[in-house]
Design a protein that fits this description.
The protein is an alpha/beta fold. It has 2 domains: about 1-160 and about 345-370, 3-Layer(aba) Sandwich (Rossmann fold), CATH 3.40.50.2000; about 165-340, Glycogen Phosphorylase B (Rossmann fold, 3-Layer(aba) Sandwich), CATH 3.40.50.2000. About 40% of the residues lie in helices and about 15% in strands. The protein has helices spanning about 10-25, 45-50, 75-90, 105-115, 130-135, 160-165, 170-180, 200-205, 210-215, 250-255, 265-275, 290-300, 315-325, 325-340, 345-360; strands spanning about 1-5, 35, 55, 95-100, 120, 140-145, 155, 190, 220, 240-245, 260, 280, 305. The chain has a 7-stranded parallel β-sheet with strand order 3-2-1-4-5-6-7, sandwiched between helices. Strands 10-9-8-11-12-13 form a 6-stranded parallel β-sheet, with helices on both faces. Helix 1 (about 10-25) packs across helix 15 and helix 7 crosses helix 10 (about 250-255). The longest helix is centred in the first third of the chain and has 17 residues, at about 10-25. The chain starts with a strand and ends in a 15-residue tail after the last helix. Mean pLDDT is about 90; it is low at about 365-374.
């Protein structure tokens, strides 16, 4: 039952694929799992770290919408489809599960030509072109958001790593705070701008750092690996811990009472799964999907949304600090955040994938080179 996972480029595509891979392995430790990727994506680092086989195909960036630019890529796309088909043939793929990104389109087209079942998962409210194309080839379409632009999609949530989806924040609070050098007796604000950090978020929070500390609040601030922001803080007072990145985000979530962050689909899914309230700062560019990700959480009372330009040291002093000093409000927001979370998407999606495979009448015959796309 060889499973091919196609989700590359960004962590938002890769992490759900790897979470599904982990769930499939829990259900069947012997199942062969192969990840498709490109040489330019984060998958070249993330997939091997998680212990899965990675097969690379050429990257063919596609526009986010159906525009005349599509006419410029057929030659390169044909080569990528052929490469994806070679992988499907080599591993005798029984199913292709796509999560979007550069690698998904060639995988969908190669699978369709070979009559290999296709499963599509899109994490965002506004699906990308690859998943809109893939959804035309299959009835097995799942979404990470209750409202989605994929017709006929079943809402299932976003598959998350088990250390996140099964995290008990309260049970690990003291251990997690000790891990980061934080005190056990003071509230903790977690600040993160995503995998690469955010200069705007960093500057706003650092500009209010002394006010936050003066209020008796500790900070765990993930600056980003490429950030060059100079951090100058007065000696003494509650800890203000700055780090370039964190490998154990489960411990960061467990240490925190509140967060300031962007509102990518994965971030929103993780924070609601663990019940951590947040100030969500959507990216000021793109198609507006980050605001759409955070709006249901804010409506439920599990967070606040503030525009990038409005996140200033003054806003933090006047709005955020009073919330951090109100334990009853923080608890209520935590409960509201948790009410929006989906913690079992990985296992539910793994069960769907295995069900589709087991419905097949027999193993697919390998195709000859003459049957390949492109």
């Amino acid at each position: 039952m060889s499973v091919v996972l196609a989700g590359g480029g960004t962590a938002g595509h890769i992490e759900p694929a790897l979470a599904l891979a982990d769930a499939l392995r829990r259900a069947d430790p012997a199942i062969p799992i192969i990840c498709l990727g490109t040489a330019r994506g984060l998958e070249t680092r993330l997939v091997p770290l998680r212990g899965y086989e990675l097969e690379l195909i050429p990257a063919v960036p596609l526009p986010r919408s159906l525009t005349p630019k599509l006419l410029t890529v057929p030659g390169r796309l044909a080569g990528a489809v052929a490469a994806a088909g070679d992988v499907l043939d080599k591993v005798a793929a029984q199913i292709v599960v796509g999560f979007g990104g550069y690698v998904a389109t060639p995988a969908y087209l190669a699978a369709r030509r070979r009559h290999v079942p296709i499963v599509v998962h899109d994490a965002n409210v506004r699906p990308g072109l690859a998943n809109r194309l893939g959804a035309r080839f299959t009835d097995h379409v799942f979404s990470g958001q209750p409202e989605t632009g994929l017709p006929g999609a079943t809402y299932i949530g976003i598959p998350l790593r088990a250390e996140i989806s099964r995290l008990d924040r309260l049970a690990l609070t003291d251990e997690s705070r000790a891990y980061f050098g934080l005190r056990p007796d003071l509230p903790v604000l977690l600040v993160t701008g995503g995998s690469q950090g955010s200069r705007a978020v960093n500057r706003a929070v650092l500009g209010a750092a002394e006010d936050i500390r003066a209020a008796g609040v500790q900070v765990l601030h993930i600056l980003g690996p490429r950030n060059e922001e100079e951090v100058r803080l007065a000696p003494g007072g509650p800890p203000y811990v700055t780090v370039p990145f964190v490998d154990r985000m489960d411990l960061a979530y467990a240490a925190a009472d509140f967060a300031v962050c962007r509102s990518g689909a994965m971030t929103c899914a993780e924070l609601t799964a663990v019940g951590l309230p947040a100030v969500y700062v959507p990216l000021p560019h793109g198609n507006g999907e980050q605001r759409l990700n955070a709006e249901p959480i804010a409506t439920a009372g599990g967070g606040l949304i503030v525009d990038d330009a409005e996140l200033t040291p003054e806003w933090i002093r006047g709005v955020l600090v009073p919330i951090l000093l109100d334990p009853d409000r923080v608890v209520a927001m935590s409960e509201a955040s948790a009410s929006m979370g989906v913690r079992d998407s990985d296992d539910r999606m793994a069960a769907e994938v295995l069900k589709i495979i087991r419905r097949r009448p027999g193993r697919r015959a390998r195709h000859s080179a003459g049957s390949r796309v492109g």
